[in-house]
Amino acid sequence: MDRGPYESYLKKLTDPQCSKSADNDRFDCHPEPNANPQKCVARGCCWKSASANFDPEASYNVPWCFFPSDYAGYSTDEIVVTSTGYAATLTATGQWQLPYGTRIGLLRFELFMPTVDSIRFKFYDPANKRYEVPISTPEIQKKAFKTNYHIDFTKNPFSVKITRKSTGAVLFDSSPSPLIFTDQFLLISTLLSSSNLYGLGEQKAPLQKGGAWARYSLWARDQSPTFNTNIYGSHPFFLNLEPDGKAHGVFLLNSNAMDVDISPKPAVTFRTIGGILDFFVFLGPSADAVISQYTDVIGKPFMPPYWSLGFHLCRYGYSDTAYVKKIIERNRAIGIPYDVQWTDIDYMDAKFDWTYDPKRYGDLPSVVEDLHEHGQKYIMIIDPGIANTQPGKYAAYDEGVKDGVFIQDSKGNLLIGKVWPGTVTFPDFYHPNATKWWTKQAQDWHTKVSYDGIWIDMNEPSNFVFGSTVGCPGNHLDNPPYVPQISGNGSLADNTVCPSALHYSTSHYNLHNLYGLSETMATASAVTSVIKKRSIIISRSTFPSQGHFGGHWTGDVFSTWEDLHYSIPAMLEFGMYGIPLVGADICGFNHDTTEELCTRWMQLGAFYPFMRNHNTLGAPDQDPAAFSKRAQSIMKAILEVRYTLLPFLYTLMVNSHMTGVPAARPLFFSFPTDVNTFDIDKQFMWGSSLIISPVLTQGAESVEAYLPKGIWYDLYTSQMIGSTGKMIGLPAPLEKIPVHIRGGSILPLQAPAVTTTLSRKNPFGLIAAYDVNGSASGELFWDDGDSLDSYSADKFCHVAFSAAQGTLTSVIMKNGYAPESPLVITEIRVLGVAMKPTHAEVNGQSAKVTYLDHLLELEIADFSADLLSPLRVTWK
């Protein structure tokens, strides 16, 4: 709009709350489009043009209509000390002028202090029970005796401020904007300690979110990842890096549609349209500790089976089993390491769940049997939409109707939508009968096709018609007074079911963002009861707690160099959300890939925790065997690198299960005081030991990569680089993705094979990379790879390694797993050995010594030792 003519319409022209308000101090009073002075003044707000330039490409700009600092909020007469923290009754103040319904006049505030490093506080209506998110969180019975935070309140207007005791850093401060609470519009803001802000997904966006005006809307939607667009999941969590490198996190436990505004003040505003305001603050102080504390609340990540870390192949467009067998056989023929074959909806009979086409896929059971005979696994897709077109002939529908598990419309009739098989009903996975019904479908299907995991898609839920086949009634849930800035013409019902639809416990308005999680929970329960071993459930739509039950892939990305890059921040964010088993569709899903792009993507994808190559109907094949011999060789080589590193990756994933911390993580997790790492999202790390610097530009044969201060070693050549913390040009011909080992690390390795079934039988090795002090450490977790209780029942081995001053030793921290045959280690490489040794012993026995002077690399070989017994290696 042309704002020039409205310059004379200044609210309270001489009022310093308006006239002297800097751009960055503004909090939006008119978040909908088409603000003007008349509307703004009618809301009791300030209208003033911005001094900053308007950016039409930005998701959000400086608001011209903004709250004065004395805008109507809430006050209290008394803050009461309780056995768990504090409480207060809040009373609405001032004149209510916003067009978002009637303000709730009386609120209850409760603050809990459960641990030394965490806080929970909530605002709710004490007179009327409101919807609260049905995920399990720890019960709080008393407050911590000691805390690392201060809590301060103001009474009028009411605000809460939480700061770190040791530094005074702001962890949460609600004072800069009014607290607003109506039935369908809730708003609260907080100041940040810095602009180094991460999280608030799911979005296609850079890793670092702070420093500029931005808006992220959270409403799950079947939408290919696109800038400034809400896509598959909702994660109202952020991590804020403080000026001294400490970190804290903030989580809003709310599943309703919301906008999250970011301003360069720096500040964050949450604007949600239902539920309550239920916040958790985590003090860290490290980024790892923040994620660990966050997953203490939402659930630690599940423990994946070892085979799930292998390479997976899929595509939409396998027309029949002959096609599938061709793909399997040609990749076997060239020795591609390859663990799991998937099928998309092609296998289904008329696209009905829990069926296969008897003509095109009649021998699917024998194909799966062949995979199992070769030590491979099979996963198929299941969509939530259950066809209703063959009543009396389709068990999934008939039994679901009998059990009453389908979502109803606002009148109590089955809500009918439309997806791949035609008209469908949608399961209500929160219905008390749903998991039992879903488990029966999974069990019956497994007797026909012995699958090893399930891929759940279209579970936002996606719907090809608006709301239902007859539309939506258009009530206050379908058309709330405020709709976040979502795609789909600003309607909550677009491409999904009516918000007014009824679940067993509440409306779809409240449960929409939880739909994918609820299906994951039911599917994980079903598969566990059927297979009785660890499995994986990979879901498109996610919400906090997803990682406790399954993993995620980042959806229908495009075969572009841009999407190759943005797969990295997406992967890193989901690690922060407690979903470490994550990856993008390698080579891209939408459109046609190229050999160069697919080669580079396979190289990057070899370092996704979840590695799957997948593409769309009608696109050319992009499995490794589909390309030239040169590309095949490169892809095979990087897969062999991944399989060599699987013991290390598995150890990282088990650590994620135990602590919550991600396996793949941003550089700033390990280098929190190095400001150069804060916005890096073209590189990432595995744990704290490997840094990966992929080629992300067409035609490039080198990478400008940042290596933080320390000693680094090329993974392939062992070449040492001493960095003071700077950008370094790294050679990266098509055959190479630069990967460097951080000095101070010991990595457990294993000789690769074409499946993890075979590679797990191969001998182990170690790489010990010395730091500047001439020392290194590492660990290995090992179990049978798929038992449900290996961790909980202590049926695992945990080995800790250390090296320094001519000695490498291991300590068996836990010895609860007895493999059928000994785990044998036959090779050790030590990097950064300054003086040439002439003799080495392994457990008192002489071993072969090779020393490469130009690399300062020591190789110890021609020995065999049991890895699950204490190891002592010396050289001199």
UniProtKB/TrEMBL annotation:
GO terms for molecular function: alpha-1,4-glucosidase activity; carbohydrate binding. It is found in: Membrane. GO terms for cellular component: membrane. GO terms for biological process: carbohydrate metabolic process. Pfam families: Gal_mutarotas_2, Glyco_hydro_31_2nd, Glyco_hydro_31_3rd, Trefoil. Its main location: membrane. Keywords: Disulfide bond, Glycoprotein, Glycosidase, Hydrolase, Membrane, Signal. Residues 16-69 form the P-type domain. Belongs to the glycosyl hydrolase 31 family. This is P-type domain-containing protein. It comes from Capitella teleta.
